[in-house]
Write a structure and sequence with these properties.
two-stranded antiparallel ribbon, 3-stranded antiparallel β-sheet, alpha+beta
């Protein structure tokens, strides 16, 4: 059985983030993209559309000063939605955080 094309797409996005090429990651997004970010922090909420999605990615790198690693645990997708379960490592001002999203 072959993977759903949106799983392959999400894999490319996270591979681009893993090499710090957020511009390349953003090239896979569309105007109807919606990024849901869990929690209660400056990144939390829904980021709708291409401009908000790119601003969201830029904010992540700004807040972490580029010290970020996302380990993909699982990617799932349908024709209309995709998700990624991640183990994320952030660093800010010398303090490290790890979370699952």
């Amino acid at each position: 059985m072959t993977e759903h094309p949106n799983i392959e797409l999400m894999s490319k996005v996270y591979a681009a983030f893993g090499t710090r090429r957020r511009g390349n990651a953003g090239s896979y997004w569309t105007e109807d993209a919606v990024h849901h970010y869990p929690g209660h922090n400056p990144l939390s909420g829904e980021h709708k559309g291409l401009a908000e999605s790119i601003a969201f990615a830029n904010k992540i790198f700004e807040l972490t000063e580029g010290k970020l690693r996302m380990d993909v645990l699982e990617i799932g997708a349908s024709d209309n939605h995709a998700f990624a379960l991640l183990h994320t490592h952030y660093e800010r001002k010398g303090v490290c955080w790890r979370c699952r999203s």
